[in-house]
């Protein structure tokens, strides 16, 4: 299942998760103003920030983090990809999203599924983008 696919029957805060995945900032702001939780989780423990990161919605990531979302919060519930948002950005192979999350304070040494760090996840990528992402993570890791 792609993170952008959300089931209205089973997800906790479907509206905010959908807004995050699609990049709909106006709807996200309206939902938060009406009381939706910034840290609401779906059935797999993913927050709207996870969906924004997985779908490369840079403006949504900036909005959620500036609003107080936990940039290193880990998904917990699917047992398959219990990553922080950075792990989802690596899986989607978006250099820009990884760079933004790192600039906003994401921890490249944060552990996720089976104890793998973001660096471990990136090492599994063999494409050119994956190698660039790995270098960004390693640079940030040694700088902190």
Automatic annotation (TrEMBL):
SUPFAM superfamilies: Ankyrin repeat. ANK repeats lie at residues 11-43, 44-76. InterPro entries: Ankyrin_rpt, Ankyrin_rpt-contain_sf. Keywords: ANK repeat, Repeat. This is Ankyrin repeat domain-containing protein.
């Amino acid at each position: 299942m792609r993170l952008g696919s959300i089931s209205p029957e089973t997800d906790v805060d479907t509206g905010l998760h959908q807004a995050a995945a699609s990049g709909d900032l106006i709807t996200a702001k309206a939902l938060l103003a009406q009381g939706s939780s910034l840290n609401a989780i779906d059935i797999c423990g993913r927050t709207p920030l996870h969906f924004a990161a997985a779908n490369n919605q840079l403006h949504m990531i900036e909005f959620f983090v500036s609003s107080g979302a936990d940039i290193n919060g880990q998904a917990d519930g699917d047992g398959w990809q219990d990553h922080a948002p950075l792990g989802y950005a690596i899986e989607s192979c978006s250099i820009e999203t990884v760079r933004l999350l790192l600039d906003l304070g994401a921890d490249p040494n944060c552990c996720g599924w089976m104890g793998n760090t973001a660096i471990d996840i990136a090492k599994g990528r063999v494409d050119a983008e994956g190698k660039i992402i790995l270098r960004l993570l390693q640079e940030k890791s040694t700088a902190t």
